[in-house]
Give the backbone structure.
Amino acid sequence: MTNERILVVDDEPQIQRFLRPALKAAGYDVVEAATGGEALKAVATAAPDLVILDLGLPDMDGKEVIASLRGWTTIPIIILSARERESEKIAALDLGADDYIEKPFGIGELTARIRNALRHRERSEAAPATLSTDGLVIDTVRRLVSRDDEAVRLTPKEYDLLTLLARHAGRVVTHKTLLTSVWGPAHGEDLHYLRVFIGQLRQKIERDPTHPAIVRTEPGVGYRLVVDQE
Amino acid sequence: MADDDRDDNRRPDPDALLALAEKDRRGKLTVFLGAAPGVGKTYAMLTRAGRLKAEGADIVVGLAETHGRSETAALLDGLEALPRTRVAHRGRVLEEFDLDGALARHPRIVVVDELAHSNPEGSRHPKRHQDIEELIAAGIDVWTALNIQHLESLADLVAQITGVTVRERVPDVVLKKADEVVLVDLPPTELIERLKEGKVYLPESASRAVDRFFRLGNLTALRELALRRTADRVDDQMVDYLKQNAIEGPWATGERLLVCVGPDDLSEKVVRVASRLASGLNAPWLVVSIERADREVETTVRLQRMEGLFRLAEQLGAETRRVVGNDFVEEILKLARREHATQIVIGARRHHGWTRFYSPSLPDALSRRAAGLGVYFVTPDKKEKLPVPTRLSPPGVASFRQSALIAVAFTGAMAAVGKMIDMVAELPNISLLFLLAVLGAAVMGGYVSAFIAAVLSALAYNFFFIDPLHTFTITAPHEVFALVVFLTVAIIAGGFASRIKEQAEVARVRATALQSLYDFSRKLSTTAKADDAIWVAVSHLQASLKRNIVLLLPDKSDLKVAAVWPPDTELDVTDFTAARWTRDKQEQAGFGTGTLPNSRFEFRPLMGPHGLVGVCGIQQTDVRLDINAERALSAILDQTAIALDRARLSEASLEQAARLEGERYREALLSSISHDLRTPLATIMGAVTSLRQLGDKMTPESRVDLLQSIEEEGSRMSRFVGNLLDMTRIEAGTLKPKSDWVDVSDVVQSAVERARKYFPGRLIETGIAPDLPLVEGDSVLLGQVLFNLLDNAVKYGGDEPVNVYARRDGADVLISVTDLGKGIPPAEIDRIFEKFYRRGKPDGRSPGTGLGLSIARGFVEAMGGKIHAESPALKKKGTRIVIRFPAGDKTKACKTP
């Protein structure tokens, strides 16, 4: 089989220096770009399967790169960013990036995100009917949710929230996306709705609602539905 | 809404309460008012004083005129009397009231008789009522006595009634401001009785007037005046009481008088009539003069008249105002509307005189156009001459002799010229020469000169050129004709000449004023800071007005003096109070205004486009500013206000910009530090986790490379952290360099070695002079400095070689590190030693940490050296950093191990 190809966009040579051998060893082909311009060109010519993008680039803003990529491709994009640049991360995710990872990071974390993103790409072509994680099973065909084979009764809003997270399983979904898709475009800023409904959802699906294992909070950004690592 | 309004009105009027509070700090004035001498004012005053004294009050007699009457003198027994002061006046010694003695004694109440008394020349105040004002200001209560005939506003009326002109007068304000008025009344018949019994003292000189004065009719009229005045006062007090206690009116008649005056002699009567009208109506009144806008030059006489008139009006309690305009009627009506005047008082005369202001059509026009307003015309008395206290000398008298001289000179010269021409050729029209004389005299000397020249010319022509020669015979028609022509020419030419002169003067004054204003605005335009603008304004005002100037700016809730010129000008408490009034009410206060007129300064608000920006005080003298100075003043004040407003805005916006810049800088700084720390950390962590989890799937070379990158990034981080710590030490002031003798060439060599190892493949050339002296310092720190400089030079030097030189330069050892990169723009050359400054974007994308050079500077300065940058260094490119250390003393160096 052919290896999946990953485009790494970062202007720091040190980062490239360790990502290249590490991703290679993890079974990916690596294409490198140091600037936004190079990145756009490389996506068009080298046909990568996924893009790892540092938001701070010398020639253009990483967000611009996402915006122009999203104009014509649905290629998964994982953002590398610093923790304090929260608003930048959210903006990037809202622009269509699939996930993000904060520097510094371990290689295991990165490869997990890569796998998730790639799997989603495969899945999006044929949406999965069911998803199970940590004893929780979501059946979108019959609209049933069960926990350890016991049916869980969810309100329509809770169900919408859960399925939205499940469709992006393993990846972060921003507050804004959750709010606008479940409550409508007028409620993009009503964070308190989310806090309340996520709390209720956790009460019903988590084993220990005080230490949620399925619906994780991404502080300041959104929520993530964690899936079992195979 | 309506209810609110009513509530508002019912609250005590703050102004009334303020005035009350002001009065509380001052002494109280009690006036014993009588209709005529001899009614027993002094007697009443002393009786009352004795009663109070018996009750234990601290009351002294400053001055009481007993006029040798025993019954009055007896009252003085048991009262403390202040000794009088002796004043030499015109060879006589006068006994006068001792103001300073009274102030020093500072009783609770002092009795000072004869309010209308004029002090001898050289006294502190010209009038006794001013002495009393000072006593009151000092917090002493004063009792005094006054005859109604001495009241300023009644002067002409009293003169009309009695035929006696009263010279000693008291401004109405004094009586108006008195806290208590005690009317001492005696029926006229009894007074005459007392006079006959010799109980009324009158000076010898006045005995002639006595018969005229002490007539039943006169006394009755005066008594009526006194009674009516007192009644008015009671009415005022009632209104004050109502206002203070917020009892609803109707307490005011709502009348407001606008009184129009000009520099004519009728205006004084207009003012007096208006004053009586105002006090009868209990209405405020505003005296206004309208100056023609196109008349730039006011004659001194007119100005003095106007000043005198305004002073009188203010003494009588009026507000005064000067307005500039061309259409008098329009200006008057405009002002009346703005000031909510209900009646207009104006002088009206049917014959010519000062027609400029009171042309026959003015009253008609006014009454035609003054819809809804009452117009009150004051007509002149034709039979009686008004007693005018100060007669002003008519203009032009002084120059008569000059005019005559000019006329004689011109006529003489022309006669001589004519004689000379006559000798050469006989001309029939020689008389034309004398036209020249008339014309010349007109141009030089004006009307008078032209007239004299015309008459002289006619005579001279007759005498010298017409047969029979050397005789005066005006018989022939052509001689009469010549005289008529000369006179006509004189009138026309004189008129023209004087108008031209006036216009030239106007142009000159206008040009001077314009130039001065232009100078000022040019000076102002070069100042961006409020401080500079203030000083420019103050010095310019002082120079153009010749008055002391003070400028105050709002300072939180108070005012502070921002500038004074000349610098020794000082403000006292009254001045400050007046200035605060101006700030609070945004109107003029102090000298010459209705508010705190005893301040030496007149304060005016400086109104910028965004409200009050300051207060300007002009120290006034008795001579008021003329209309031109007034105009210049308001123009300058307007300009200053705008400049201050502008400066304030620009300072505010600069501050805002600096704050924003600071915020941006801090943000950039933080992101730069976090980037510098995080990138090596991310590399190390990524490489380590890769090796651990995926190491067995990697080639050996990859593993070695990852390990090497970990090492490099580790040392990079350690350098950055080291730099941060060094910087912290420098900033905290804990850096203590050792003081050893350092061999510069040694240190340079080892730093270069280290740099070569660090940056393999980069060419670093050295040039070290052989006989370098030692310098005092710390070799480790110096090595670090040089390494930082080399690090920098390599980073910014492109691919060109880096040069290091060390040599002796006079008493210094000089080390330089030069790169041939792009160099530094001149604007930034001073900033490169700043912390976290880096060439390139401030977002952390440039290679350095932004600390190297600032650490280098910190170390060099700690060791007593100097560092600076030069760019371009060579061939229009590159940067050179130069360090200097004082060369050490070789002999001293040997002694120190």
